[in-house]
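Problem 12. The chain below contains 405 residues. Write out its predicted structure in token notation.
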Amino acid sequence: MSAQETIGVAFDALAANKMRSLLTTLGIIIGVGAVICTVAIGQGAGEQVQEQIRNLGDNIVFIAAGSVNTAGVRMGSQATKTLTLADAQAIQLHISTVARLSPGVGASIQVVYGNQNWSTRARGVSPEYMQIRRWPIESGSIFSQREVDVAANVCLMGKTVVHQLFGDLDPVGKTVRVQNIPFRILGVPASKGQSPFGTDEDDALIMPYTTLQKKIAGIDWLQYIMASATSQADMDVAQKQIGVLLRQRHHLRPDEDDDFIIRSPMDLAQAQVQTSRILTLLLGSIASVSLLVGGIGIMNIMLVSVTERTREIGLRMAVGATRKAVEWQFISEAVVLSMLGGIIGILVGMAASAVISKIFNWTTLLSALSVCVAALFSAGVGIFFGYYPARKAARLHPVDALRYE
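Solution.
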């Protein structure tokens, strides 16, 4: 009997007990659907984290003023005044693995326009900051180095602040008041959205760091320096070189702790990616238990089928069917059951992913690999759990099978 005829007979045998066949495939349908859906959710979450990593910027190395111990009390990061503009200039001059950098200071501010006001965060940076962050200007333009040098009252306004103060109006060229100081809005950066750390990137006013130092914060040191390594491979080297340079500049003895902190936001973001992958694997593993249950259901029903069709098996052997042909007949029935369940399960999983994405506004990402793996796995379940019943059928003695009542 050809493979086509074998499959045709398998369909006929399964069609004779439609309800039983449908209930048998239900476990496979649920298992495959659950695997497809959970993997799509996990991959969607992973893609969101990857997008957030891309939004972080260009191979960022973050240097912050360190903690300080005062009378036995340890203050948090950015509590010291040891990080200076000269440090930033030295890093730019002596560290070859740093492509560009921006000095940085920050402060909480109140922005007022007309009868509207909004509490936000001011970021004092240099023009290179926008390049480091890969943050394009949507309208208007960024401030120049000359405006940094003269501490000009100019700024970029994040989209969240624009929405709160201006609504749908174009803010470029308008004047707002920050701590009772007039600031002219030069431009509006494109929306960045939420950072991997849960903060709204667009809820900020970006201005020259000299302006923030002298006119708002009243300080002459830096709270942080944001640098961009020449490549992702050079990030670790850049961090080590910067650490050595700053220790030398700050005259720290070997037994003294750093008075600065060097971090890469990529480290935390990559950890989130790894967590997302582990969660996807865990959810997929849990969902695949349903496939195991479905496989056991197929084995059970095939054993019942062998018992019910004992006389049929004996008759086939009596007219010349080989043991191998009988074995393949029952394996093909198990594979057809599992593959039908797999195909329906894939469709169910895809539909469930779309519904979850729409209802809960979660990002889901279907991949061809997960669909192929689910299909192959369902076929494997049919072969694995169908083998024993098929082998049992093939080992029946024709005479005994024909006498079976």
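Discussion. The longest helix spans residues 265-308. Students who got a different answer should revisit the alignment rule from Section 12.3.
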